[in-house]
Design goal:
alpha/beta; Rossmann fold; 6-stranded parallel sheet; 8 helices; 6 strands; 12% strand; binds flavin-adenine dinucleotide; NAD(P)H_dehydrogenase_qn
């Protein structure tokens, strides 16, 4: 398989840097082709602004989605963005790796998503009718590809447990899993999470590295998280609400969007 790992940590000698090297080495040992987008090393520009749309006339109002669509269709995206789009098209698997910063991804990685997910490529695709509401949530240009997160947290596993004060880790990651990865069509694998990452002795590092190698060996066979497909009949169109009768009684929030026959699986 072809694997794109997007790495968002400012320090190559960090724990994240060491785990990235472990993942890449294991993937290559398995015969996979690997490309790494090291965002800090690349000097990735995070903010979307007028400079992203060289075709926009100086006096024209910037309407971001429209400008993105026009630039994507005309082949006028900036070189850094179109290089990343080429890598995404090339990849069978996308891995996003980052330390959890303020309960989500670092700004540089969010900026990669904001800029690389062009309109007409990652969103704004497909027809809208009484049967379909665009190609999204399980359909879209990333359909057939797999994706997963490698995440480190300072907090303990219990802090991110079902009753933990930080909120369940799979709830915190839901906007990335469901909103950023499932939305344009990826099959989303359960995340690889390292808790209490501020304190790792050599033994725990080695155990963590081995757990990560195992995840890299099973990249092609791990079952994706069972999100409901938007156009699969579970949602009313155009309200996009889950049909009455679906979802276990009393269930609310993110958990509704996981097929209940598989609800024991993580969100
Ligand atoms: P590093 O600091 O590089 O290393 C951590 C430990 O791993 C050290 O003990 C180090 O000795 C060991 N280590 C590193 N490399 C190796 C190696 N090769 N072999 C053996 N041991 C090694 N945490 C939360 O839980 N929630 C948050 O919302 C949150 N927000 C944050 C916001 C900011 C701005 C920052 C800076 C931190 C935040 N944190 C938060 C903590 C953050 O998630 C952790 O600091 C981070 O995940 C640790 O990963 P790292 O790669 O930076 O680790």
């Amino acid at each position: 398989m072809k694997v794109l790992l997007v790495f968002a940590h400012p320090e190559p000698r960090s724990l994240n840097g060491a785990l990235r090297d472990v993942a890449v080495a294991e993937l290559q040992r398995q015969g996979h082709e690997v490309k790494v987008s090291d965002l800090y090393a690349q000097g990735w520009k995070s903010a979307v602004d007028r400079a992203d749309f060289p075709g926009l006339a100086p006096d024209e109002q910037l309407v971001t989605a429209a400008a993105s669509k026009a630039a994507f269709e005309a082949g006028q995206l900036t070189q850094d963005v179109s290089d990343e789009i080429d890598k995404l098209r090339w990849a069978d698997v996308l891995i996003l790796q980052f330390p959890l910063w303020w309960f989500t991804m670092p700004a540089i990685l969010k900026g990669w998503v904001d800029r690389v997910y062009a309109c007409g490529f990652a969103y704004g695709v497909g027809e809208h009718s009484d049967k379909r509401w665009g190609d999204r949530y399980g359909e879209g240009n990333m359909a057939g590809k797999r994706a997963m997160l490698i995440v480190t947290t300072g907090g303990w596993e219990q802090h991110y447990g079902a009753r933990g004060v930080n909120g369940p880790i799979n709830d915190l990651l839901f906007p990335i899993h469901h909103g950023i990865l499932f939305y344009p069509g990826f099959d989303v694998l359960p995340p690889f999470v390292v808790h209490q990452a501020g304190h790792l002795d050599e033994a725990r590092f080695e155990a963590t590295a081995e757990r990560l190698r195992e995840r890299m060996r099973t990249l092609a066979t791990t079952a994706p998280m069972p999100y409901r497909r938007q156009n699969g009949g579970d949602y009313l169109i155009p309200s996009m609400e889950l049909r009455p009768g679906l979802g276990a009684p009393g269930r609310t929030g993110f958990a509704l969007h996981v097929r209940e026959e598989d609800s024991a699986s993580p969100r």
